[in-house]
Structure formats: C-alpha cells, structure tokens
Known about the structure:
- With 187 residues, the chain is α/β, with parallel strands linked by helices.
- It has one domain (3-186): 3-Layer(aba) Sandwich (Rossmann fold), CATH 3.40.50.10420.
- It has 5 helices and 10 strands.
- The protein has helices spanning 3-19, 22-38, 40-44, 61-69, 144-150; strands at residues 47-49, 73-80, 85-90, 98-100, 106-108, 123-126, 130-131, 137-138, 157-162, 183-186.
- The strands form 3 sheets. The chain has a 6-stranded mixed β-sheet, sandwiched between helices. It has a two-stranded antiparallel sheet with strand order 4-5.
- A hairpin with a 4-residue loop joins β2 and β3.
- The longest helix is centred in the first third of the chain and has 17 residues, at 3-19.
- The two termini are 26 Å apart.
Amino acid sequence: MPNSSKKVLRERILTLLRNQKEEERLTKSLAISNKLFQMVEFQKAETILFYASFNGEVETFEMMKKAQKLGKTIGLPGIIKNKKKIVPTAVKSLESDLEIGPYGILQPRRGRGQTLKEDHLDMVIVPGVAFDRKNNRLGRGEGYYDRFLASLAPRTVTVGLAFDFQKVDFLFPQGKHDVPVSCVLTN
C-alpha cells in the first residue's frame, strides 16, 4: 500500500475512532477484553505489556486492572522520543505510576517502575490504527512498535486489539520493517 493510501486509511480510521460514542466504545472494548481473557496464552502469561488506550482506542485500563487482580505483572511502554524507542516498564499503580508522555499518551513515570526485559514478556498487547486478515498492522506512522516487535523473543505472543471497523482486507504491500502480530481480537 503506497504511503499516500496508508495516510488516507489512517486518517479515515482515526476519525472513526474519535467520533465513536463512548458508551459504544466501552461495550465493544468489554467484548474484546472477554476474548483476550479467554485465550489460553493470556491465562498462562505471567508478564504482559499493555498499551495505554487514548483517543478512542480499545479501552485497556480495565483489562490491566483485571490482569493485576489475577496476579499478572503488567507493564506499559515508556517512550524515548529522540531514539524512537519503546522501553517496557512494570506498573504497579495505574493511579500513581503514570504520567503524560511525548505524544499525550499515559506512560510509566520516570524512575517509578522496573524495566521489563523483552525476553521476559509473555504477551504484548499491541495498538494499531488498522489490521488486515494476515495480522499486518498499520500504526500511527512513527515505527515505534515495528522496531519493538522485531526485538521480541519468538515465543512472545503479540495481540492486536481493534474494533470491527479497524479490520481491513489487506494492507499491501508491507514494508521490510513492518511486523505482523500473532493475532487480532475484535468485537
């Protein structure tokens, strides 16, 4: 998919995300959450990196709270903007351990949480603007997650979360740096 087509698709879906009614977003997010928690891989996972949902994305904060109650170690990505890098960081308190990061997204407060080693992550919950039938993802265009996903151990399960309107037939062609996720859960 040429860059101009990616840009058009990205803008169209971001608009749909922003314009979705909050009640509808939460209802659909709950359906997606239920699918996630039923996955055998999720049930076996001890350490899970989530993302902090914002701007209409699938709601992840309730998922993180529930995962913590199940005794799982949860983390969130810390962003190092000048290196375009994700640093997975453990989060104990969703109320006091977060701050607003470079893109207006909540991230671990500096110096609060322990850095999680990529090879210790059992599962990574991955945001995306769009996903296709082959689990390729269209991100926000900065490449943070593609670089991060490429660094994970092969055993790490990566799960995209998306509303039904974020699923497309194909995102083609994929660039050499694009990394698909293991599976995508939708409402």
